Amino acid sequence: MTRAASSPAPSELGKLGELSKVLELPPENLIKSISAVPVSKKRHVADFQFSIASVAEGSSSDCLAQDLNLQAQKLAKRLKCDAVVREISTGPGTVNFTINRELLAKTVLQQVLKDGSEYGVKSELFSTVPRQKAVIEFSSPNIAKKFHIGHLRSTIVGNFIANLKVALGHEVVRINYLGDWGMQFGLLGVGFQRFGDKEKLQSSPLQHLFEVYVKINKEAEDETTKKLAKDFFRKLEEHDEQTLSLWKQFRDFSIEEYIRIYKRLGVHFDEYSGESFYQEKSQEVLKLLEDKGLLQKTIEGTGIVDVSEKKDLSSFSTVMRSDGTSLYLTRDLAAAIDRMNKHSWDTMIYVTDKSQSNHFQHLFQILKLMGYDWAERCQHVSFGLVQGMKTRRGEVIFLEDVLNEVRSRMLQNMASAKTTKEIEDPVETAEKVGLAALIIQDFRGLLSSDYQFSWDRALQSRGDTGVFLQYTHARLHSLEQMHGNEQLTDVNVACLQEPDAISVLQHLLRYDEVLYRSSQDLQPKHIVSYLLMLRRGSVSFKLHAQF
Ligand code: ARG
């Protein structure tokens, strides 16, 4: 009967066989109808439930709910308990199975030991999911501008999606699409000529370029500055060697620093791309749009594409300025086409905050109008806004500010907590634990929700926080180090019969379903809730008493 463990024992498959015989349905069709019952604090629950609705035909209505209950009761009567299933009961529209307690403990532990870190991902739930190549674009900050909280969220969410896909056996290309082009580089160029310092550019490029940009922006209304900025950008577009070489330094030094900082977060990219790559290719896109009869000119001379359903221009996107140059959207069109040519991906995911939802809708729509049917395989994963993340220095400007703040706050908490043991490298530990806290706080809710950020809430050492999760992990790890896990091969399952132990085992049964859910809707919250519950379970199981 057990399906959630990666490969159920033959005796259990036999049970699935019995169900399939009674229902006259092939066992494969029943795999997704059986799920582990979520563990509940208050009451004793069965291990698995079979959902009648998943095999019943017809529409949903109140009367159907009664009907499903009735069908569940009828089916339960026809099934017999045996050496595997010790109890059969019914719930609302479900038939529930309770497995022989010793077999439950044995099967789950054996599977955990056998699969190790691949526990759950080898589940047959994933056997029908084809292995795919996914391009995931995330983080994508703008050079010389603020690395705002939206970029931080994009970084951790994109990294989560990429890691999850890799764990499930998919091929992943991680792309950072930098804001490295546009008129602001004209201004930055002039700013650098006026206030720049080559040494500072090398030693702390992100900070220096930001400062230069802030300074020159104050003079941006001045006519001479405006003209110089325009000239600088024109030279850049014409690939004037000197101008281009300065711009390239801005970009190269910035990327070097990004790589170093992302590393602290455990994030890396396969490609540092950017808008600059697509200024020429976007001219080809404009030509293509024109050839396909999709490009229309306005009286002001701008180029637009009608994306309305009725083709009445009730909704359109601007893809060309009146001087013929490209826009953010045009460069994204060129980038999408280029990535398809380069990577032949099966799915492409863009991770940004929800303020860009319209932009991506238009992007996918235009690609579709251009005849690229793969546009349907593009996806925008959006997330809500986070308010109130401030550091002691004030507003967050650089990613490094956030990381340093997390580390110092965590260090302080550790120093004041009496329970903190002597650790080898407190700074490193503070950083790791603090980052987990930040990520868990962010991943607890739906990605689309906005939330108010709080350092104190995130860094609490008790409750549903990343800090407690890390501590529990560390405790379990040291337990494993102390005792080794080889003894588990001859574990006496009779000792694992108390309700708390059963709850942990039951919870472990659900892991693959949780992974599956997150892999379907790309929401980390399922995995996070699962882990927090597992932590509660292992704590109430009094594992901590053994340290
Ligand atoms: N650099 C952009 C920004 O900071 C995000 C880029 C998102 N990706 C894209 N392909 N448009 O708003």
Please describe the topology of this protein:
Layout: H1 10-23, H2 27-30, E1 34-36, E2 48-51, H3 62-78, E3 85-91, E4 94-99, H4 101-115, E5 133-137, H5 149-167, E6 171-178, H6 184-195, H7 198-203, H8 205-217, H9 223-237, H10 241-264, E7 271-274, H11 279-291, E8 295-297, E9 303-306, E10 316-320, H12 328-343, E11 347-353, H13 357-369, E12 378-383, E13 386-387, E14 390-391, E15 394-395, H14 399-416, H15 426-443, E16 451-452, H16 455-458, H17 466-483, H18 499-509, H19 511-521, H20 525-540
Parallel strand pairs: 5-6, 5-11, 6-7, 11-12, 13-16
Antiparallel strand pairs: 1-2, 2-4, 3-4, 8-9, 9-10, 14-15
Helix pairs in contact: 4-18, 6-8, 6-9, 11-12, 12-13, 14-15, 15-17, 17-20, 18-20, 19-20
The structure holds arginine.
Residues 137, 140, 142, 177, 179, 332, 350, 352 line the site of arginine.
Which properties best describe this structure?
single chain, 547 residues, alpha/beta, Rossmann fold, four-stranded antiparallel beta sheet, 51% helix, globular, disordered N terminus, disordered C terminus
Compact description:
Helix content is 51%, strand content 13%. The chain is built from 20 helices and 16 strands. It has helices at 10-23, 27-30, 62-78, 101-115, 149-167, 184-195, 198-203, 205-217, 223-237, 241-264, 279-291, 328-343, 357-369, 399-416, 426-443, 455-458, 466-483, 499-509, 511-521, 525-540, and strands spanning 34-36, 48-51, 85-91, 94-99, 133-137, 171-178, 271-274, 295-297, 303-306, 316-320, 347-353, 378-383, 386-387, 390-391, 394-395, 451-452.
